[in-house]
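From: lab user (bench 3)
To: helpdesk
Subject: output format question, protein + flavin-adenine dinucleotide

Hello, I'm new to running complex predictions and I'm not sure whether the block I got back is the full result or only part of it. Here's what I submitted:
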Amino acid sequence: MAKMIDMKERTKREQVPMREQLPSARIHNFEEVPLGYTKEEAIYEAQRCLQCKNPTCMIGCPAEINIPAFIRLVVEEDFEKAYLTILKTDALPAVTGRVCPQEEQCQKECVLNKKGKPIAIGRLERFVADWARENKIKGIEKSDSQKEQKVAVVGSGPAGLTCAADLAKLGYQVTLFEALHKPGGVLVYGIPEFRLPKSIVEYEVAGIEKLGVKVVCNQVIGATKSVESLKKEFDAIFLANGAGAPRFMNIPGENRNDVYSANEFLTRSNLMKAYLFPEYDTPIKIRKKAATIGAGNVAMDAARTALRLGAEQSYIVYRRSRAEVPARAEEVHHAEEEGIVFHFLTLPVKILGDEEGRVTGMECLRMELGEPDESGRRRPVPIPNSNFVLEVDMVIDAIGTMANPIVARSATGVEVNQWGYFKVDKMTRMTTCEGIFAGGDIVRGSATVISAVGDGKFAARAIDEYLLSGKSLRKNS
Amino acid sequence: MYLIKKKTKLYQNMFSMWVEVPEIAQTVQPGQFVILMTAKKGERIPLTVADYDREEGLVQIVFQAVGKTTEELSCIQEGEYLYSFIGPLGHKTEIGLFGTVVLVGGGTGIACIHPIARGLKEAGNRVIAIIGARNKELIIMEEELKKVSDELIVTTDDGSYGRKGFVTQALKEKLDRDPSIKKIWAIGPPIMMKVTTNLVKSYPVDIIVSLNTIMVDGTGMCGSCRVTIGNETKFVCTDGPEFDGRLVDWDEFMHRNNRYQKEEKESWQHFKDESKCGCKEG
Ligand SMILES: Cc1cc2nc3c(=O)[nH]c(=O)nc-3n(C[C@H](O)[C@H](O)[C@H](O)COP(=O)(O)OP(=O)(O)OC[C@H]3O[C@@H](n4cnc5c(N)ncnc54)[C@H](O)[C@@H]3O)c2cc1C
Ligand SMILES: Cc1cc2nc3c(=O)[nH]c(=O)nc-3n(C[C@H](O)[C@H](O)[C@H](O)COP(=O)(O)OP(=O)(O)OC[C@H]3O[C@@H](n4cnc5c(N)ncnc54)[C@H](O)[C@@H]3O)c2cc1C
Ligand code: SF4
Ligand code: SF4
Ligand code: FES
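Helpdesk reply: Thanks, we reran it on our side. This is the complete output you should expect:
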């Protein structure tokens, strides 16, 4: 068995890098890019942890994982216990271990970050979760003390899944409603296979079902059922329907045939598996030169997907400069390695096309950075008469998403702000309607998996308190 | 899984199915649609709700086997199940008291106008229905439509039944003779809706069309279904499916509907090569 090593050795060691598929190979497949730690690598990395008395890393984790405890168990090679330790507070460890912006979260707060060598917490978490899955370790089982009260959760993204899992652990009767035919939210329809294999999401969802959560797909709340009708059936409701409506630039030519929203492009490829067409029925168009507008995680995913589907050139077109790119550094790095070309300080103004409606090019303006704007970033301003045509034959809009009003429209008394996001109490995540809570992207706007997980946890706790105090939506209506 | 309670072949490649979906049957209104998947590896396709039975919890769809998915759907039998079925989606038809209204239906559009005609009739309108097809065999739901309209005109391209010619010719004669017509619904193949819209431009009537764009989710999440309506981008699934025909950018709509033509052919061929379904021959 591996053992703890002395302090000097711990600080001397460097972070263990993760092996990856070579760029030249991976642009031709949809398999995962980072390959994960081996057992030896994981132990070697875990041994570096200082086991701080006051573990600052935990401040950075909205999933409230007991980080030093699980890392210690990795050193001791008790991976099963390490898994259960993580699972106690994080229902989706194989997911968060992969897509959490760890450098901004737990690893940023790790004391070793001061020396630029934070513990690779996310990678260790991924290792433990993958090990448990491969070794068919039983997760947490259905609670022995079942309660009578029923809770409805709307939306099966990370916020909904987490809230449902936490409530089920407390013994509540939870029903999770999902509009699509598969649960997982952005984890299944948005984030591509090469970053988050769908079999892993399925596994985590199955774990949540084992806790007793009833997952009901094909239910569009606001269409199939209204929130009003849920109030009559359930004692409390958690709304976690995400911010899934695509934004467009509103420039001429944007409805041409080969212009996609990132949502459509990624949904066709991920959820509908168009990359396996015609074995799967849903088609997707791939031309020679694809331009993806925007530079967030979504844009990186779209541009890298286009490449894998067969585009010869895949561009990122971004109106600000490299310094303002919002995507995770790791994803930008991966994209560049794969040959994605970045056009910074470039603003599309028109999509050009032929008589059949196909795209033939994109007219753009060059930009320069001016004074900082509300977001603190320097505002891009167009350089007059700098128009030029970028030769492309397909365009993917990845400039962001906004609230879809379907759920809100069917919920009386639940107020939204000017952008259509639910207004909630900061502490309890309760909306303006007592007994109805909300969290994730439909409250924050497009955010992160881990903030959605955090909201799910907060809401579960608040729902527990609400129900323990004897209140109920059913009683009110 | 969603049970197919009843299936009928209306003619060679046109089918009617009653599907057990109590929740949708409870709330669906004329003009709304559903999205279904035949199987796990399938595509999500939209189909208009042709009728519903709230008591029995059934929803009727009428479809034509024009490609891979509708062909596969036509091979699923009574007592079997569909993989996915969501709805009711889109806005309901705005039913009001308008006076004299005309409902023009072509192809599967004939089934779609049926509940709208019924709603308009119940609301007190004088309802004229004009339905058309290539030949006699392809005319569907004639009896049902007779019951809910004051006048039913049937046209066939080859004159094998009803009047010879297109629905637009019959509509033009009506419009010329009957100034009391206030509002027209035209539902059918894109080209028929476009031509009908062009025809009525010179008359003082409203024209509503139901756009059958290519969809994925049907809930406003992807934008696959977007169309330009009076210079504004709209989503057919959440803003429609019915729009003022005069405001539709028809060329863009028709281009976008053709965008997967090559893949659709490939998919159908793949299906025929793999499939053992022999229901068309029987
Ligand atoms: C392509 C892409 C890549 C991303 N990459 C990262 C990343 O690397 N790291 C990271 O931290 N974050 C990333 N994000 C952001 C992250 O995925 C989201 O912030 C997170 O998923 C939000 O979770 P949620 O639970 O609020 O909502 P979602 O994940 O959006 O889930 C909402 C669910 O509700 C369902 N729903 C919607 N309306 C209804 C209705 N009317 N009835 C029933 N169900 C409904 C939806 O179908 C969906 O399943 C990415 C996002 C995208 C799109
Ligand atoms: C709101 C709405 C209501 C509709 N109602 C009916 C109906 O009641 N009965 C009926 O027979 N058809 C209806 N359609 C059209 C129906 O969805 C298509 O016939 C079906 O998707 C064809 O799929 P396929 O794989 O069999 O054929 P494909 O080979 O995919 O396509 C054949 C034809 O159908 C069109 N089409 C392809 N995919 C779609 C899609 N996802 N959505 C719409 N059109 C598509 C193509 O442009 C092509 O012309 C409706 C469409 C919409 C948007
Ligand atoms: S869940 Fe995210 S923030 Fe928490 S420990 Fe894991 S990687 Fe870090
Ligand atoms: S702060 Fe870093 S070193 Fe300290 S316990 Fe957390 S992970 Fe280990
Ligand atoms: S079908 Fe996706 S937005 Fe309309």
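A quick orientation on your result: The mean pLDDT of chain B is 92. Let us know if anything else is unclear.
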